[in-house]
Amino acid sequence: MLTILFDGVAYGMLLFVLACGLSVTLGLMNFVNLAHGSFAMAGGYFTVVLVNRMGVPFLACLPLAFLFSAALGALFERTLYVHVYRKSHLDQVLFTVGLIFISVAGLDYLMGSSQQFVNIPEMLQGQINVLGVGVGRYRLMIIAICGLLTVLLQLMLTKTRFGSRLRAAVDDQRVARGLGINVGAVFGLTFAFGSGLAGLGGALGAEILGLDPVFPLKYLIYFLIVVTVGGTSSITGPFVASILLGIGDVAGKYYLPTLSAFVIYCIMIVMLLWRPQGLFARPR
Amino acid sequence: MTDPALSLTDAVTAFLARRARWSPLEIAFWLVAASTIWLFPAKHLILTEICIWALFALSLDLILGYAGVISLGHAAFFGLGAYAAGLMGKHGLIAEPLLALVASGIIAAVIGFVTSFLVLRGSDLTRLMVTFGVALILREIANKYSDITGGADGLQGVEIGPVFGRFRFDLFGHTGYVYSLAVLFVLFVVARRIVQSPFGLSLQAIRGNPLRSSAVGIAVNWRLVAIYTLSAGYAGVAGALLAQTQAFASLEMFSIERSADVLLILIIGGTGYLYGGLIGALIYRFLQDYLSELTARYWQFWIGLILVAIVLIGRDRIGRWLAPAQKLAETISQWRPGRARPAAIEKAEP
Question: How many contacts (CB atoms, under 8 Å) link A and B?
Fold first, then answer.
């Protein structure tokens, strides 16, 4: 029971790191970036190549994966995404679905369609006993890293100058512009940062979620649920939503193995009926 | 001198009636389509596919082009219709294919009706998630109950009886093509009638501004429910057509790739005038033929590239390139035997 809870929390934390960038871009520019998972996948594959082919230590790869995806995100943001911000949601959907397909087919071409595995160092394998509960070391590390990141993110949003600029831009873009905040730059930085987090999530999650070229399509529904259920006005919302989703999914797989795939959809439907505007949405 | 309000009503009625009339270009379009039955007998298999894609895109046009609902999982209803028709054929529930087709469409419409209440809640993003989720759920159901649906292997052993008890589905797809084209034409005429009715006009008003349309007394939610249900039924019929002509149904019919393909088809052809899906299907199928010859396995890559390119270039800009052709089409459409530009339009327009 506690093990399931623990695994669920680890899974949920991972989902949060993967999806929180998406919720910020959505809240900031009202931009539907369905291709968010592609940046996560890029981070995952980057790690696979570094660890398995070049022998870079796994832990050193994590920040590199972050930087790689962040750079990729910044590049795409400046060259392609900027042209699509002002277009309709339909255009944004078409554009980002197109990007997903390109990334899926591209990675299939470069790396093959089979699932990739990262060589995890031995010290992260196996289980340890904490208060009589068997706990996977790797999942413990995920919780530690993701928990730390969440606290850092929250501090960054609430305490730093950049954070207050970001929140101002999310709340009211026009007024923020009027106060001299360079919303475009804030957005570019945030986009890159969010993509970087996704890349880090992809690197961490390769072991748990599995990594193959259809990754962005397979987990798209999870990202969408996290963002719609959690709302886009804070990071607390998506965080709670991810943890709930993670625990629900893991518990569903354990207790109702035949129906496990339906559990997350049921969560989604119940949430929608109960709070159509998201868990923590503020009335506008 | 008549009452001005009355004459305005007359003018509007006359204008709408004129808009609803079949233009020579449309008649020519369908005559050409019908002539392919005799002109290209060797291409009937591929033409059948085009018909089915066209019908599927038409169903998406009803919600996207007329009501402005973005769906990322329209394949849900396509797959549902396909499995319904396939199962009916396999177990001989309804021997007459046409009846089975109608039944499959109704089944898809019922599911469309039920899910429409979820879809209509919330923003565009919620709609994306729900439509996508519905497709995933249906796919998962088809996958789980593999003793009925055949699971990942697809539904095999489907046997479709002869249409009207006389015309068997042959190996070269002649019957299949005439059948599909006839279904497409009938459903197209129905859709055309619907979008030009006051109901269809109110949908366009909703797409333009939901708040304002509810202020002038349009029941926004119920109209959206109605068109979503209809669209789901159309998609179901399209799927059923595919299952009947190919005697097969598979999980792939629920996939997001199929939902994205149909979006692409509609975007290529243009939304909101019903012919978009038909023209788009034609272009798409030949494009697919050409590109798969280059790289069969990475077809998806090209779809992605085309989508990205269309958005970056801009749909309105592409529309402007085609403006001369549109103008020509309009000139032909407005041409009537024995009469120049009708006077009532000028009266109605200012």
Answer: 115
